[in-house]
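Hi P.,

Sorry for the delay on this. The queue was packed all week, but I finally got your sequence through. Input first:
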Amino acid sequence: MKKNVLLKFFVGVMIMFPFIGQAAEVTTQSVCDAGKNMDSLSSIINWASCLLMSTIVPFLFALATAAFIWGVISYYLNPDNEEKRKKGKSFLIGGLVALFVMTSMWGIIRIFSTTFETGTVIPSFDNIKSSN
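Then the structure:
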């Protein structure tokens, strides 16, 4: 009974993930558009930061969330097997630590960007003039 309820809960959570992800506000569009023309160093840096913020960071968040969920599932579905519980506990703690570190870095960057009034979280190099 306990396994069925837990399994239904996690299936429900996984079904809700796309709706939660669509609630996020995407702010990288102007930087992504600036990287289309790769003729200067600033365009290449803007493209790389767009790639980082739009693909790699969400993938790492998804990976940490999956590790956390896998740890919870393997911890609770194996009450008799101490080895599998220990492995599940390590996944649970590792996923939780990874989510905490990534979220706190995001918050620290947001605090610095609002404190120094940069207006954007992603650095933009469009205002750099060449020495010609």
